[in-house]
Amino acid sequence: DWMNVSRFDVTSVVRELSEVLGKTFRREIRVHSDNAVYMKGDKEKVRQLLLILIDNAIKYSKEPIDVRIRHSKNTIKLEVTDYGIGVPESEIPYMFERFYRVDEARHRSTGGSGLGLSIAKKIVDIHEGTVEVYSKQGNGTTIAIQFPRK
Ligand code: ATP
Predict the structure, then answer these.
(1) ipTM tops 0.90
(2) At what angle do helices 116-126 and 43-59 cross, to 10 degrees?
(3) What is the per-residue pLDDT across 7-42, written as a single tens digit (0 to 9) for each?
(4) HSE-up of 21 (CA within 13 Å, CB side)?
(5) Each residue of 118-138: pLDDT tens digit?
(6) Does the beta carbon of 113 sit less than 6 angstroms from any atom of ligand 1?
(7) Which of 55, 101, 115 best tests ligand 1's pocket when mutated (most atoms within 8 Å of CB)?
(8) Cα(first)–Cα(last) distance of the chain, in Å?
(9) 129 vs 41, 76, 78, 118, 125, CA distance in Å?
(10) Atom of ligand 1 nearest to the CA of 103
(11) pTM to 2 decimal places
(12) How many CB atoms lie within 10 A of CB 42?
């Protein structure tokens, strides 16, 4: 994939995006982060990744959403947590596949294409990152992205 690599502050990307999405959808999006967290990567693509995750959190929950940015010497961790419908354990392995939608979502009037997470996964992959999903049906979902720090 073609990438436009620079060094940028992930925290400010998250804060800007959270403000716009919070206002647009009238939802509380809480950002938890210390200072500026710099990463080397494609800023626009990382922004798109966060947009997909926060957009899903908005669509599949009603409570406030928590976004956490953590960093250590070698990694940067981004976590988006919602307290919504959750994903059944058996469906988690498939949710990043193209056009895949969990039953409950498929029946929602506010549709989606099922492409969001497959694009998100591609963006993580080209940054050599990993994705983990923690979810409990009826309780909510955390999508945790980890990038190596370069
Ligand atoms: P779109 O492509 O418009 O984002 P989508 O939300 O259906 O549509 P994906 O983002 O790829 O597609 O997500 C795939 C499926 O994973 C969703 O249809 C939904 O069933 C499930 N899912 C994703 N995020 C969450 C979440 N935060 N809570 C519950 N289910 C989720």
Answers:
(1) yes
(2) 150
(3) 999 999 999 999 999 999 999 999 999 789 999 999
(4) 26
(5) 999 999 999 999 999 999 999
(6) yes
(7) 101
(8) 19
(9) 11, 9, 11, 14, 6
(10) 20
(11) 0.94
(12) 19
Tokens of 66: 């928590």
Contact between 118 and 101 under an 8 Å Cβ cutoff? The reply is no
How many Å is the maximal CA-CA distance in the chain?
A: 44
Q: Distance between CA 130 and CA 5 in Å, rounded? A: 19
Look-up of token digits 């403000």: 19
Q: Which two tokens stand for residue 34?
A: 């210390």
| Structure token pair of residue 86 | 């959750």
List of residues 6+ apart from 149 with CB closer than 8 A: 39, 71, 72, 73, 74, 75, 76
Residue length of the chain: 150
Nearest to 61 by CA among 138, 144, 6: 138
Q: Which amino acid is at 76?
A: I
Per-residue tokens: 140? 């909510």
* Beta-carbon contacts of residue 35 (< 8 Å; ≥ 6 apart): 11
Chain position carrying tokens 């400010």: 12
